[in-house]
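Form 7-S
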Amino acid sequence: MIKGWVTPLLRSLLLIPIAALLLMPVVLSVVNSFMTEREIMANYAMLGKTDTSLFVNLKWIPDWVSFQQYDNVLIATPKFLYLFWNSVYMVVPIIIGQALVATLAAFAFGKLRFPGREGLFLFYLMTMLMPFQVTLVPNYLMADRLGLLNHPSSIILPGVFGAFGVFLLRQFMLHIHSSYIEAAKMDGAGILRILVSIALPMVKPGIAALVVLLFVDYWNMVEQPLIFLQDAAMQPLSVFLSRIQEDALGVSFAASVVYMMPMVLLFLSAERYFIEGIQLSGVKG
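Output:
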């Protein structure tokens, strides 16, 4: 009886401090975004100024709640919203495109039998294992040859055909028992009908997990826009945030809060499917 509640208690005592430590930067960003610029500079003025002291006055409650930083970001700085929509314009097509391509490819690799299937899938996975720096030069040369440099397509097209989504959804396709597909074939269903009516409903958690992971990955991209988009007006908001100077800490905190809200809202809306998708991604049926 005692053991039944001791184990969850010990688990909670271990996880609560870890969760608090991980959430502390987010909470501080939100709190600091409602401070005045003067208060922020007073709290962080000593950071890195001397070699002997790196003391920072971490305050969890502002002396005076101010919306000035949000006014600077959302109203006084139209560039922020413009770059925000640049991010949306690039990330949404990547997510939709890769989810569609990955679903079709994963179904083929997981449930269709054709010569060279395993070898082709292994070759496909090799592209996922390569870091961005390895494929940078070929992608740049290809984009230059196709006339896509300094255009969002130079980022959208490689993202649509990324290998990660295929790898993730294939694990879900393998989890679908073959008896469902065989029964559908006996009823006269074709490949497309099987995909739409059987496969898609059963891999919905995997698609939700893929959407969340892709959004976080491409919403925070910096290297690709810096290399493929020379025009600063076409770059996403993630690049703009990386360039905010130390003398604009208040704007930086407010911009960071606005920037992370889409990720938080997406995760909260797809939390159940995301957790289920992560749990089932390694199960093979």
